[in-house]
Every structure is written in structure tokens, then in C-alpha cells.
Design goal:
Helix content is 18%, strand content 31%. The chain has 411 residues and is an alpha/beta fold.
């Protein structure tokens, strides 16, 4: 058997690939309302001021602030009512000295008003006059023209992932369509003589293919388009032919299984046969997932993931997920959600590699979050099904200890 490959840390492995990747897979124009999770293909610039008019932030009364100076509950300011500004209508009321007009939250101020007295800080004298029980400063309880965003401001930089609040902000400016990067297409090839489709009967020595579907789901979650290509036997030409079709149709190619060093594991040989530079990295310093392959052909990244489900999902999260975002032009790859919890049991490890251990989250009697390690072999999918997230043991640690606070990377 050949000497086992030299390994790199996951970050170093991705850094070796990144300079070879082109940050562009084309551009789509989509409805803003449908753009959640997409990556902007150009800067989005505000075509107008927002708000376009001065708006009240309170129910109350539009006033000239100088008419309230010195007002208090003991010595209120008396103001004559000259009307109101109904919601959704332009302001026709104009204020003179010692005058006020009724204002509503989100509505326009009366003309010549520069502040709003909160209704709770006033008292009605009759239908024509109020008392202001406190002074207001210029601009108090008012959102000014352009205070949210100015015409010409860049509201989202190229390479930003569009969030729910971004959709609201873009639509508030009347922008109903946005240019976004096309979703990277991820071709998935599952290899192994033992694999059968999930709906097939399982005979002796056979197992159902699940990696195609977990990888497809992870791809969709990362903003890519999954393109399952084939179940391929452990045979060089069959795998190479499937890979050539995948390279022609996709932006990223992912092999499931066939990444360790043995006579029947052909991923590295297939990648090297597809064109220069071929295999860039063979082996990363993690557990599970050490026998991972990273390559490049036809300017497209190729990943050979281990066949064990836990290993495949861990490596996808560390390498394929950022590659999907990177190819979409994303300048700041979104970090997965995390939470802090105290370990319930020790996690043993070996210094010099990163260990990733699934954990189940629970609450202690005092309400604190507790992470219970879910130990199991990397070919057991229910190790992940029964867990809520994963904990990393850093490369410079020989383990983590019960009671230690850790960051749990949530699924």
C-alpha cells in the first residue's frame, strides 16, 4: 500500500484552492421579493432619499420647537390647534407662532413644524387648543428626509448575501428587481459497487445511497443548485466518464466516497486524468474526514469527500460550502449559527488534528445550555440525526473537558 498522504489543516487546504477559483458564475436578474440568500452581482445604489419627507415617530402634535421652550407641567405652553395631517396624505396645515397640528406615527409633519410633542406629554384644553407639558428640541420625535438613506448611497455592496431585512430595505426604495450571481451548479457523483438507490431493496452487502441526498440538501442550503449525476461503480473509466459530463454541466464537482488510499478508491486518479493541475490536496488534518481530495480541472473545483456520511457532511461544511459562496462572488461568507454550551462529558482527541464531534443540546436544571457529545463511527448517519450541532476540538488541544464552555456550530 502507498505511503499515506501528507495532510493540511482545513483552512490551509481551502487557501491552496482559492487563488485558482474564478469569482464569477454569471448573473441573473430576479425579483427582489425572491432574492433571499442570493449574492449581489453589483452594488445596489439608492435612487432616492428615504424617507422622502419628514415623518413623525410618535402620535402627538407637530409644533415649532421654539414655541415649547421652557414648557413644563407646572408652566405648560399653550398652543392653538390648526388641524391635522392624516396618514397617507400631504401636509396642508401650516404652523404659525404658537400653533400645533395633530400628527400620527409615520405621517408627515405640518408645514414649518420641526418637532413633535408626544401625545402623552400634552393635555387638551378644548377642541381648539392644547397644553404642551414639556419642551421638545428641534428634530425631536422626527425622522428627517434622507435620515435612513440618501440618494446615491450604496445600500448593498457587490458580493453581499441578501437577508430578509435587505429585501425590505431594497423594496422601500422601489427597486423591484436586483442583479445577483447565478447559483453555482454542484454536480454530485456517488461511487461504490455497494450502493443502490434509496427505493431499492437492500441485498446482502448492499447499502442505500444517502450521501447524494444529504449533499444535495447541503448544497441547496448553501445557495447552490444540486445536480445529482450518477451512482457509479468502482471502475476508473465509468467514474471518469461521469466526471467529464459533470465538468461540462456544472461549476463544482463533488465525489462521494473513493477518497482514501486503496486500490479500489479511484477519486484522486480520476481527478488527475481530467486535466491540469489535477489533485491539489490529498488529506486534511481532521477527524472525521482525513482522506479528503481537493482538485481543479477545467478551472473548476473538484472535491472527493469520504463516503462515510458524518465525514462527508463535516467536510462539505468546511470546504464545499465556502467554495459555493466564493464562486457566487460572496466577499464575506456567512458564518453558520453557533451557541455556547457547557460540555457534559470529556471529549478525547489527539493534538495535531481538528476533531469534530456531534453534540446534543440540553438545558440543565438551572437553565444553562449543556452539550452532550454523541460519540459514534463516521459511517453512522444517526450520529448526526440524534445531534443538534458539532463541536470542534482545536488542533493544539488533546481534548476538551467536562464543564468547559464550547461553541456549538448548529446544523
Amino acid at each position: 500500500m502507498p505511503e499515506f498522504f501528507n495532510v493540511l489543516a482545513p483552512d490551509a487546504a481551502f487557501d491552496a484552492l482559492k487563488p485558482m477559483l474564478a469569482m464569477s458564475v454569471g448573473v441573473d436578474v430576479v425579483a427582489t421579493a425572491d432574492a433571499l440568500g442570493r449574492v449581489t452581482a453589483e452594488d445596489i445604489v439608492s435612487p432616492e432619499d428615504l424617507p422622502a419627507f419628514a415623518r413623525s415617530t410618535m402620535d402627538g402634535y407637530s409644533v415649532r420647537s421654539r414655541d415649547t421652550f421652557g414648557a413644563s407641567e407646572g408652566l405648560p405652553a399653550y398652543l392653538d390647534l390648526v388641524g391635522e395631517v392624516p396618514m397617507g396624505e400631504a401636509a396642508h396645515a401650516r404652523l404659525g407662532i404658537g400653533q400645533a397640528a395633530k400628527a400620527y406615527t409615520g405621517g408627515m409633519l405640518a408645514q414649518d413644524a420641526d418637532a413633535v410633542v408626544q401625545v402623552e406629554r400634552t393635555q387638551m384644553l378644548d377642541d381648539t387648543a392644547i397644553e404642551a407639558l414639556r419642551a421638545v428640541a428641534p428634530g425631536e420625535n422626527v425622522v428627517q428626509v434622507g435620515e435612513d438613506v440618501r440618494k446615491g448611497d450604496i445600500i448593498l455592496l457587490k458580493g453581499s448575501v441578501i437577508r430578509p431585512q435587505d429585501i425590505g430595505g431594497i423594496l422601500a426604495l422601489g427597486i423591484t428587481g436586483v442583479a445577483v450571481s447565478r447559483k453555482p451548479r454542484v454536480g454530485i457523483i456517488s461511487t461504490g459497487d455497494e450502493l443502490v438507490p434509496p427505493g431499492a431493496a437492500v441485498g446482502a452487502g448492499r447499502i442505500r445511497d444517502i450521501n447524494t441526498y444529504t449533499i444535495s440538501a447541503l448544497t441547496a442550503e448553501a445557495g447552490g443548485i444540486a445536480m445529482p449525476l450518477a451512482l457509479v461503480a468502482d471502475e476508473f473509466e465509468a467514474q471518469r466518464n461521469a466526471a467529464l459530463k459533470g465538468l461540462a454541466a456544472c461549476d463544482i464537482l463533488v465525489f462521494s466516497a473513493g477518497s482514501s488510499v486503496s486500490s479500489r478508491d479511484l477519486t484522486a486518479d480520476v481527478i488527475n486524468s481530467l486535466g491540469e493541475p489535477g489533485v491539489i490536496v490529498h488529506g486534511i488534518s481532521i477527524k472525521p474526514g482525513k482522506p479528503t481530495v481537493i482538485g481543479l480541472a477545467d478551472d473548476k473545483p473538484i472535491f472527493g469527500l469520504p463516503g462515510n456520511p458524518v465525514s462527508a457532511m463535516v467536510v462539505f461544511d468546511l470546504l464545499v460550502r465556502p467554495a459555493i459562496y466564493y464562486l457566487a462572488g460572496c466577499k464575506r461568507i456567512p458564518a453558520p449559527p453557533t451557541t455556547r454550551a457547557a460540555l457534559r462529558r470529556d471529549i478525547p482527541s489527539v493534538a495535531g488534528r481538528e476533531d469534530f464531534i456531534p453534540v446534543r443540546l440540553r438545558q440543565s436544571d438551572d437553565g444553562a445550555s449543556v452539550a452532550e457529545p454523541v460519540f459514534g463511527k463516521s459511517n453512522l448517519i444517526y450520529t448526526l440525526v440524534r445531534s443538534d450541532g458539532i463541536v470542534k476540538v482545536p488542533m493544539d488541544r488533546s481534548g476538551l473537558y467536562a464543564g468547559e464552555l464550547v461553541d456549538v456550530r448548529l446544523y
